[in-house]
Specification:
The complex is a heterodimer of chains A (231) and B (81).
Chain A lengths: L2 E14 L2 E8 L10 E5 L6 E5 L8 E7 L5 H8 L5 E8 L6 H5 L4 E6 L6 H11 L6 E7 L8 H10 L3 E7 L9 E2 L14 E6 L1 H13 L7 E5 L2
Parallel strand pairs in A: 7-8, 7-11, 8-9, 9-10, 11-12
Antiparallel strand pairs in A: 1-2, 1-6, 2-5, 3-4, 3-6
Chain B lengths: L10 E5 L9 H5 L4 E3 L5 E3 L7 H9 L6 E5 L4 E4 L2
Antiparallel strand pairs in B: 1-4, 2-3, 4-5
The chains are: A alpha/beta (231), B alpha+beta (81).
């Protein structure tokens, strides 16, 4: 059930470029599902900003990963946070979570993210692999622009090494000359039939519409395509 | 989050459909006032479903500022500011 929770900033780490990881500790465990978000109070006049939770449920600790590039009121609040500061979070919120029916049905899953759309997906995938011992195929496709803004690559590669059913594909739209991986957009990666799979998409409105249409054309039923719009 | 249903509230809420992305934060905070319709857009089910404080918090927690709050006693728009 959603409620107000007071957390304390325990760590603040610059992952890469404008991407900041904030580790919060709460007085008690917060009951949420991987993929959900919280609403953080970012000003005294009632302003709040929504941030996906970057960690899977693990006791009193909770992580946020915030892209401060927009430099609005939320970005400035995040940048101004210091270790020991208190924050007020309204949570849990959102329905972008793994569908229980699909979990029981042992479906193959494809996760498609661009930019910070990766944030809710990391805990969803970790929860599936580590906590739920999900054995079916899980494919993650993440689209970014430049190498300089990459983060969590090592974490995903480690998961790939530890779990044979997990595959991670990184696509750069503006990779430099030294980039040896996939180039282009996430939509360029769908090169086979995904009939019978389920999909989770997170990105901006246009990316979601485009990706959902392509995935549907590869055989995924519309009702098995779930998405979270970032804006 | 919902407490007992209030008799009559002074804040009137309105959903701006074009801005709503179906994040459902309003439903999470004030479930007796808002619901998502079949198109995944927030809809008002009862202006007096939640107390004013919850209705305002629902508007403040909307990621796209798709909810307007008007104080019917003054006519003033309380949110967004």
């Amino acid at each position: 059930m959603v409620g107000k929770h007071i957390g304390i900033v325990k760590e603040k780490i610059n992952l890469a470029g404008p991407n900041w990881l904030i580790k919060l500790e709460f007085e008690s465990e917060i009951d949420y599902q991987a993929g959900q978000y919280l609403s953080l109070k970012v000003g005294d006049s009632g302003d709040r900003r929504s941030y996906s939770i970057a960690s899977r449920p693990q006791g009193k600790m909770l992580e946020l990963m915030v892209d401060v590039a927009p430099m609005g009121i939320g970005s400035k609040y995040i940048l101004g946070l210091k270790i020991g500061d208190k924050v007020e979070a309204l949570c849990p919120m959102g329905g972008f979570v793994i569908d229980n029916g699909e979990l029981k049905g042992d479906k193959k899953m494809v996760f498609v993210a661009t930019g910070s759309g990766i944030v809710p997906m990391k805990p969803m995938i970790e929860d599936l692999l580590i906590d739920k011992n999900y054995n079916e195929k899980i494919l993650l496709i993440w689209g970014m622009r430049h190498q300089e803004e990459l983060f969590w690559i090592e974490e995903f590669r480690k998961l790939e090494g530890a779990y044979a059913n997990f595959e991670f594909r990184l696509v750069l739209s503006q990779g430099g000359d030294d980039w040896g991986g996939d180039r282009g957009h996430v939509a360029d990666v769908f090169d086979k039939s995904y009939e019978g799979w389920v999909a989770y998409i997170c990105g901006n409105k246009d990316m979601i519409a485009q990706t959902a249409a392509i995935l549907e054309s590869t055989g995924i039923k519309r009702e098995n395509i779930h998405y979270e719009k970032f804006y | 989050m919902a407490k007992d249903k209030p008799n009559k509230t002074k804040y009137q809420v309105k959903v701006i459909n074009d801005k709503c992305i179906g994040a459902a934060s309003c439903v999470a905070v004030a479930a007796m006032t808002f619901k998502l319709n079949d198109a995944n857009i927030a809809e008002i089910i009862d202006q007096d479903g939640n107390v004013d404080e919850e209705k305002l918090l629902a508007a403040q927690s909307c990621p796209t500022a798709a909810i307007e709050v008007v104080d019917t006693t003054t006519g003033e728009t309380i949110w967004p500011k």
